[in-house]
Design brief:
This protein is mainly α. It folds into two domains: about 5-80, no CATH class; about 90-145, 434 Repressor (Amino-terminal Domain), CATH 1.10.260.40. The protein has helices at about 10-20, 25-30, 35-55, 65-80, 90-100, 110-120, 125-135, 140-145. Helix 3 runs antiparallel to helix 4 (about 65-80).
Length: about 150
């Protein structure tokens, strides 16, 4: 199958989509098995084209194809981009260093003694503290929560 990443223009991508939709099921499934960065980019290009150039409605005949593309991309990215579990203490220390903060500069956690206990690992951040830190530093709570579950 031609490489969509090398296509020049919307008509080439549209022809690729039409070819794929009329391909035998086995060929289509093989194309959706993303196993390298070039194929990943190719599938992303097709998805982008469909998202930008087809109707956004429940009746869009491309919806099942868009769903398959999204799942294929998600599966590849989950395998390719594995992130280690974060360490809330390391994140907090990094935020403090990046923003030149002392323990007393974190009232959303509590007093200096409480911050010290958290930084030393004697205590863990609670939900309220995580929410306050995320609001202050514009972060996702996932950074702090993902690592707290074992």
């Amino acid at each position: 199958m031609p490489n969509i990443a090398k296509a020049h223009g919307k008509n080439d991508i549209k022809r690729k989509i039409d070819t794929l939709l009329h391909a035998e099921g086995v060929k289509l499934l093989a194309w959706l098995c993303i196993d390298n960065d070039v194929k990943h980019q190719e599938v992303l290009d097709v998805l982008r084209y469909l998202m930008m150039n087809t109707e956004d409605s429940p009746d869009n005949p491309y919806n099942p194809f868009i769903e398959f593309l999204s799942i294929a991309i998600e599966n590849y990215e989950k395998q390719k981009y594995v992130f280690p579990k974060s360490d809330p203490i390391a994140i907090l220390k990094s935020l403090m260093a990046d923003h030149n903060l002392k323990q007393s500069d974190l009232p959303e956690i509590g007093n200096q003694a409480k911050v010290s206990e958290i930084l030393s690992g004697k205590r863990t951040l609670n939900k309220r503290q995580i929410e306050a830190l995320c609001q202050r530093f514009h972060l996702s709570p996932v950074l702090f929560l993902a690592s707290t579950s074992k």
